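fyi for ur records
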Amino acid sequence: MGEKLFSSKDSLKMFILESLNDLACLFKNLDHPTRLEILARLIPDEMEFGDLQKAMDIPKTSLANHLIQLTESGLVEKLDRGVYRISFDGEDIMNSSAKSFLDMKVREQERLETLRLRYESIISKYTYTIGEQKMENTDKYRIVKLPPLRVVSFHEMGIFFGDPETKAFSKLESWAKPKGMFSEPDKHKLFGFNNPNPKHDKEKLNFIVNEENPYGYEFWITIDDDFEVERDVTVKEVPGGLFVVTSCTGVDALGETWKDLYSWIKDSKKYKFGKHQCLEHNTDPTITDASKFPFDVYFPITE
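which gave:
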């Protein structure tokens, strides 16, 4: 229907200019992942409020507020007490939006492939030499710019290696796992870091950890702006920054990985050591074997 409605670009332009407020209101109603999820879950059948809340695992008040906005905009219909279904308009918009989104992604991939072929010879020149190894920046080492993060923090102190990590993770797991956050590692990213670092013995070239010199470990798990947390939970707003990132598997591999990244920055002609927080990103917190933990290790850098 939409493809046949406008006979020319000029008619499309005029329609948009004459409907700016109404279109902005429509986009505002769709401008939230929770509301999009509600619409998607109501395709093709209606659902009761309790079933919808259980499926989405969000607070009742949050779900109720989103449903009110969707029903008032005509995208969702309330059939009976606590029973909802997507309207014809809502389903039509979701179908059109999904098609447009997929078309955009296809065109994006086509553009990227064209660029790759055109500049393949140029990209291959951007390499770094570390010792006798030659690594491409797009292969083992990645330059990542993290945006500002909203996180829930869990911190513990200890006098034995592994002790504060275990205690802090236990608290994190008890809080986050029942909420289903571990099953969405891309949405709720899990970062960890020493806080503070163990005391370093420069003469013996090792770390000193005892009752007089404890160290700590802190975990962060990322949350959205509208994620509701309990009052006794520590929420932090942390700045992002530029990082060089590489991957490793297992807790025992972290030490050598940090040394590897340190050497990479030291030998780099473009990047310098940054002052923001070093991070260990466990990309799959459902794995329980410490020797198989998949890590992305973030070393802060500046240009």
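Confidence is low (pLDDT under 50) at residues 121-138. thats all i got for now
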